[in-house]
Design brief:
The protein is an alpha/beta fold and 299 residues long. The chain contains ten helices and 13 strands. The protein is 36% helix and 23% strand. Helix 1 crosses helix 8. The structure holds adenosine-5'-triphosphate and magnesium ion (MG).
Length: 299
Amino acid sequence: MIYTVTFNPALDYVMQVGNITAGRVNRSRSETIFYGGKGINVSAVLAQLGIPSAALGFIAGFTGDELEKGVRAMGVEPGFVRLKNGLTRINVKLHTSEDTEINASGPDIDDDALEEFFRRTDSIADGDTVVIAGSVPKSLPADIYVRLLERLSDRKIRIAADAEGELLTNILRFRPFVIKPNIHELSAIFGAGITDNEGVRHYAAKLREMGARNVLVSMGGDGAFLLDENGGSHFRAAFAGVPKNTVGSGDSMLAGFLAGAEKDYEHALLLGSACGAATAFSEGLASRGDIERILKMSV
Ligand SMILES: Nc1ncnc2c1ncn2[C@@H]1O[C@H](COP(=O)(O)OP(=O)(O)OP(=O)(O)O)[C@@H](O)[C@H]1O
Ligand SMILES: [Mg+2]
């Protein structure tokens, strides 16, 4: 089973607005709600690929009820801890000529709820995969990922991680199966200006030396690089197409990688790239049909 963790999920309220004038009443042309959060994105794309997963994290209030319903409708098993107080966030995304986003802070997570979250992870067993993705909300201890992985370290679990800076480097000692920094995150970790493929390979190798088994570096429209656990280097150019909304491309790539790694790493990079592109080329996340259509372009 694959478990994804989203500590601070959100309903993303996306409004298409022509122009915004501050201090005036502005009108939106259309609105859509997406069920957001990096772990949930991974689960959603896995579901499109026919792979079951469970989404862990915290929800609260009526927005939390809606989020749980939405996640279930995606074909993902919700395993959220329900908080007694507060509201699951609604993030407002205003699409105009220039996009503006207002991200809410989200509910407080108390010690009882955190304990309940850890208790639920006790059912994660040998051979399962745990996906940890995204930042840690203020109301949780900053070392929550490390605490989680320490608690799981008595089992043979595959860890997939997509996080920035020390959140990522602090967990390398747990030998994650795959990590997926984008090129900017990779540069920031080493304080380096990475400008070419050789640089990407060089710094990916450092992360592998630090403990990661597979290092997948995404480079947006410039494609992706994989340094696999056997030391093999694979570059793949991005699929050609018109990007509409690239948010979640990285999460989609991670889902595709996990699905594809069942076969081999070349295939994992191919399927990851197709899922990333399918998300980039659509308003929401990759659908099964989009992924299949894009994969046909590669043969
Ligand atoms: N414009 C694009 N055209 C084609 N493929 C793309 C495009 N943008 C992203 N992709 C595919 O998706 C992968 C992941 O994208 P990207 O590097 O933007 O991830 P990211 O920065 O982690 O995104 P996020 O954190 O928003 O999920 C890329 O390596 C590429 O294969
Ligand atoms: Mg990312």
